[in-house]
Amino acid sequence: MGLLVDLLVCLGMLAVVPLGLGLAGAGSLRPLWCAGAVPGAVSLFLPVGKPAAFLAVLYALAAAVLLAEAVRRLPRALRDPRQAAFATALASPSVAALALVAERAGHPLLGYSPELLALTVAHFHFAGFAAALVAGLACRPESGRAGRWAAVTVPVGTLAVLAGYFAGQWAEFAGAVVLTAGMWLTGLLCWRTGRAAARLAGAVLVPTMLLALWYALGEASGIPHPGLGWMTATHGVANALGFGLCGVLGWRLTRKDPS
Asked: Has UniProt tagged this entry with the keyword Transmembrane helix (predicted)?
């Protein structure tokens, strides 16, 4: 599972985030992001220790630049659901960065093992950055109330899942319910664009988010549910390739010049 997760994280660092920055109106930050993302990706393939942790810190500095941009946009985000979604997307890599630095140093963080931290890194590139970005892009004047709800529920669901890491598994399940509702609404709006890549991204969300609900409910209630390895190979891969990458590519094709 380790190699698969590392490859998915590389996809997020080196493709999904750089492509998505222009769509979020932050294309000017792409060179700074890549300057940190490349060493961050290299760190994934080094043994756990100080050199890998140092490269992860460079990635964390790039994530901090995006976080600063998210904070700068906060006044607009409080008034505009679309901007709130974009700000959530820009802030998400900072959560991944904290997890990556700890994992590459070989230390648990807030009681979470390095294995779970590695999954957190992947999660906040796709269920964080990509999901919030696409939800914001789907919030267009022609999408009406559905677009506004998508732009609100995906960030709220993402933050609720993050809060559930600390508040307990039932809180995490509640966050997964909100996030799933937002993702399905976003998927419907992606389907309506008519672009093949965006439609694929929307369709993929139906089974992948059902899996997420099943897993979260199983963790909270104890009912039989897929393990982390199976979730990574199904939910993780499908969301990364089918939703994250295809969603960003589909919306880039929808716009003339997103950069």
From this structure: yes
Range of the domain at 217: 2-254
Structurally, the chain folds into a number of domains equal to: 1
Query: How far apart (Å, rounded) are the C-alpha atoms in residues 248 and 16?
Result: 7
pTM: 0.91
Q: Quote the tokens at residue 84.
A: 């709130």
Task: Classify 112 as helix, strand or coil.
Answer: strand
pLDDT tens, residue order, the chain (259 aa): 588 999 999 999 999 999 999 999 999 999 999 999 999 999 999 999 999 999 999 999 999 999 999 999 999 999 999 999 999 999 999 999 999 999 999 888 877 788 888 888 999 999 899 999 999 999 988 888 899 999 999 999 988 888 887 888 899 899 999 999 999 999 999 888 767 888 898 899 999 999 999 999 999 999 999 998 899 999 999 999 999 999 999 888 876 544 4
In whole angstroms, give the CA distance from residue 172 to residue 99.
18
Q: What is the CA radius of gyration of the chain?
A: 17
> Is 259 part of a structural domain of the chain?
no
